[in-house]
Specification:
The structure is a single chain. The protein has five helices and four strands; from the N terminus they run βαβαββααα. The protein has one domain. The chain is of the alpha+beta class and 150 residues long. It has a four-stranded mixed beta sheet, with helices on both faces.
Length: 150
Amino acid sequence: MRRDAYSYRHDATVPGFPDDKPIVVFDGECIFCSGWVRFLLGHDRQGQYRYLTAQSTLGRALYRHYGLDAESFESNILIEDGVARFKSDGSIRTLARLGLPWSLVSICRVLPSPLRDRIYDLVAKNRYRIAGRRQTCMVPTPEERGRFIA
């Protein structure tokens, strides 16, 4: 669902949060999704991103705000400059900001987004089968805590 930039600021159901940096909202119980965040933490040497679990009050509110299922979390959300991006577009943009060699994934934009998103959906629907599920959300290390939104 497309919305105006920073539309969540005018939604009374979305708690306020710092949005001066891009934010990756992810399924914190999904081992595959948590692995994605661990990858980003390891390669985002400039600390560009903040992270938020979908299971948090704010995470659920953002999923509902964008018309997504606030229980199944089948798409990560990248919020960058107040604009939310989903599925393959969000993942490609996230990697592109990391610089070389990760920014080379931008070449995938030549593929039509419906095709890219079908592949994304296939992985998302099977992510628990692929990697498993935790009983609790990912817990950042003490060094990583400052990069997470509670």
